[in-house]
Amino acid sequence: MASGSSCGERVAFYRRRRGITQEVLAGLLGRSVEWLAQFERGAKELDRLSTIVAIAHTLGIEPVKLLPAAFFTHRRELHHTVLGTAPDSVPAIKSAMFRYNGTARLLGVPDRAPVDQNGLRRRIEEAFGHSQTERWSALGPLLPDLIADGWHAAYTTAGEDAARGFGLLSQVHHVTSGMLDRIGEPELSSIAAERALAAAERSESDLLVAVAAWRLAVVLRRDGQLQEATEVPVAVADALRGRLGESPQHASVHGALMLKGAVGAATLHDHTAVRDYLGECDRAAQRTGDRNDHWLAFGPTNVAIHRVWLATEMATRPTRSPKPSTSTRRHCPPSWPSAAPRT
Question: Which pTM was predicted?
Answer without folding.
Answer: 0.71
